[in-house]
Amino acid sequence: xxxxxxxxxxxxxxxxxxNISFKVGPGETVCxxxxxxxxxxxxxxxxxxxxxxxxxxxxxxxxxxxxTPPHLRDFGLVFQDYALFPHLDxxxxxxxxxxxxxxxxxxxxxxxxxxxxxxNLSVFANRKVADLSGGEQQRVALARALxxxxxxxxxxxxxxxxxxxxxxxxxxxxxxxxxxxxxxxxYVTHDQEEAFTLADRILLLHDGEIVCEGTPAxxxxxxxxxxxxxxxxxxxxxxxxxxxxxxxxxxxxIFNMACxxxxxxxxxxxxLVRPYEVQKEADEIRGKVVDVIFQQNQFKxxxxxxxxxxxxxxxxxxxxxxxxxxxxxxx
Length: 331
Fold this sequence. Notes:
By secondary structure, this protein is an alpha+beta fold.
């Protein structure tokens, strides 16, 4: 099991990572999700041994790895740019790490064949990697990382160079491979779709801190802050003031709000207005339609006041609508 305990890191006197702690259990895939500059790639490089923390511990089965060089950690790393050897064919790219570990020739043959079968590239063994598509090259990089039986697999924005259709294809294949091999994995990305597709658990990073943690369903259903709700695109995040009883007064009207926070009258409150119509007794948002965009099987309707809602049927531009919505307190 991997455990990070109170990891901190600064660059040029500015804190980049602040007291980061988390664990990755057997067979688990954890996604570090955050915007550029949030510290997620630096955190991955520390786990790999390519950078050192200023403070804290990186533990594998309770053994501190901070002083262990990268090649002795037995971790696999897959990069966005693949980092393949263009002068070698697929077989020898995958075999490279095994040769560095002085595996016997027959054992290398067997393991490379086995790994290429896992990533569905058996018929490409003798191909030059330069002749492969981007998705195929990424699978070669994955096979090379898998071949030595690593204790942990790490991915640093591995699908960023692929177009949308190819990214979805490789993402689904990667998900099945990780489930089948049951290798511990840490996946760094800024792409929510990738994180929600792959992750057993998501760690949402912002300004060097873990601000939200849980299963994909957890972080969507229970965002931990206004920033998290905005970053995940969960709906309209608005500000208000607590008034009498359960009421919160905002620029968009007064909403009835029951929550677990201990708000006092006059406190500033962040609310999440989910962009989906509900049938139960609920608050309403009202306004004149200024924009309608078709997205997949529904319409994103933007109102004059800046709020938006997703509807099955498209209203007309200029039409005034009132829609019942679910409103949550974010603190």
